[in-house]
Structures are given as C-alpha cells and as structure tokens.
Amino acid sequence: MKVQVLHNQSLFDVVLQHTGSVASVVDVAKVNNISVTDDLEPAMELVIPDTVKVDNDILNYYSAKAIQPATAITEPIKVTGEGIGYWAIGVDFIVSPDEEQEGIGYWAIGTDFIVS
User: Torsions phi, psi of 2, nearest 5?
Assistant: First the structure.
C-alpha cells in the first residue's frame, strides 16, 4: 500500500496511522530505503508492505476518529532557565581549588556535592 506523509509526521507516526502499531517501523524503513529517524517531507510517498503487522483495533479507532499523528519535531528545542539543571561547569558554575572561598560557585563536584 502506498501512503502520503503529512506535515510534521515521523516514520513512527505514518506507520502507526496506517497499521495501528509501530512494530513494523523497521520493516517499512527498509522497504523505503530510509532510516527510522529520517525527517520526512510532506506529500512524500511511502510504501507499507502488505506483510506488516496490523493492529485492527487501533487502526479502526484511528480511522473512526480521523486521528493523524504528527509528532515530528521540526525546530530546535530552546532550553532556557536558571538553576543547577541549566548551569554549565566553567561557564555559569566555576569549580575552584581555592579552599577559602565559599558558596555554590566554589563547591567541588565529588567533594562538596555528588552528581549521580
């Protein structure tokens, strides 16, 4: 069966929409000579072999509700914020061997706090 890729669809989205399962995503990738992580273009045609596993319950639900998954990320994710989860050692967070200095900017990893 030939299908068309919709805007922002990943290969997982396309396979899920047309088979009700992502179990055959590798098989579909091989048949179409692409990687499972390739970015797909809208209106691109893909072949879904008749031999792939189909989950009829999910497929029927998606069809009845007109669900067309489109989860591909097309723009880089911008991370902004404050706190230790965003700090970079040597940029925002300075590890110093100066034992007389106090405070978070002078704490040493593995000595004053443990990262696990």
Answer: -100, 135
